[in-house]
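Help! Submission page says 'invalid entity' but I think these are all valid:
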Amino acid sequence: EDQVTQSPEALRLQEGESSSLNCSYTVSGLRGLFWYRQDPGKGPEFLFTLYSAGEEKEKERLKATLTKKESFLHITAPKPEDSATYLCAVQAASNYQLIWGAGTKLIIKP
Amino acid sequence: EAQVTQNPRYLITVTGKKLTVTCSQNMNHEYMSWYRQDPGLGLRQIYYSMNVEVTDKGDVPEGYKVSRKEKRNFPLILESPSPNQTSLYFCASSPGPRLWEAQYFGPGTRLTVL
């Protein structure tokens, strides 16, 4: 069964303390992996798409990487405005459906 | 402004009373999708559409209907709502060419079925 697991469920960091969020997946062939950010009471906001192992994407303090089994979202020197829930989604090669992880709630304390 | 709009934003209804949640996008996107989001379960796809008059089931289509008569609109219909359909619903659109590339989400509709 296709599955996406995000860890940790929640992460509290001090401002400036770098860390990584994990998205591990088991699918029968990967068509694409997507990262989104969701603020409370709002719809998710697109961050990155990764298509093949070894691929990396960067945006401001965020960097997403992909291996054959997992993806990491690295956050460098985070600020309080980076606080949000980060969602990972995977599209398997076998169909058109997206499978979403439950998300990691990130809290950055000033 | 490029956006996805949903109406209503909040709705409280009773079991069995048909309702429609509208979704409209002004970006000329090919692909549109409906999701529901429940605590601990994350986002689950209900239906999606790859073009006008082309729709397909997602993970949890039971109890829902959709239609795509125009490119910009993708309404979600609950013919006979039940309490287990109480949830936060999101509509999304994406430009392609790759399916699901860079989805734009609406603000959400919080539905309560009593």
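Support: the input was valid. A stray whitespace character was the problem, and the output above is from the cleaned input. The mean pLDDT of chain B is 94.
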